Amino acid sequence: MSLRIAFFASHGGSNMQAIIDAIKSGEIDAVAALVISNNSESGAIERAKTEGIPFSHISSKTHPDERERIMAMIEKLDECKIDLIILAGYMKKIPSQIIEHVGGRVLNIHPALLPKFGGEGMYGMNVHKAVIESGETLSGATVHLVDSEYDRGRILMQKEAPVLADDTPETLAARVLVAEHSLYKETLKKIISGEIII
Q1: Which CATH architecture has domain 3-193?
Q2: CB 107 within 8 Å of CB 114
Q3: β 84-87/106-110 pair status
Q4: What residue segments make up the domains of the chain, in order of their start?
Q5: Which of 8, 34, 48, 112 would disulfide-bridge 53, Cβ 3.0–4.6 Å?
Q6: For residue range 94-150, what is the model confidence (pLDDT) as tens digits?
Q7: Which one is catalytic: 110, 128, 144, 181?
């Protein structure tokens, strides 16, 4: 049985697309079974439409009550028989009920080498700016399990990317994104093969 994946995304969904492409090419034995976005105009929803993947916009706009919002997500996960959730630029904290519902099988990718440059407020360009300002010569990406604290879950895999002397947050972000795309795929393959146990 192929692993059935749900993607949670808020914006463009480029990491999601990299995994979908690897599934379509046969590189990854999984099914892209669901996309949930808290942004009705996200690129991730457009990608889901293009790829023919079931999708849902679930947010405080659609479900102002938090309990109802969580239940709506759980219903979708059950309906699509989801085995694993992949966060692909999802800008909301995942409720503990969701994590528990899928047995802790929630992955996130962080655009730095955790445990450095993690925690609340450390997302997007904030991370790359902090890395450059610290004088680090190495950055990269980290795939980790999601728990109740930002960026504190068990680290599964990391991939390095150099920080160059003339880097801006934007140029570093572009280099780290390339590392992210390959790292997410590598981690997923190792989970499927049993090399990484969640």
Answers
A1: 3-Layer(aba) Sandwich (3.40)
A2: no
A3: parallel
A4: 3-193
A5: 48
A6: 999 999 999 999 999 999 999 999 998 898 899 999 999 999 999 999 999 999 888
A7: 110
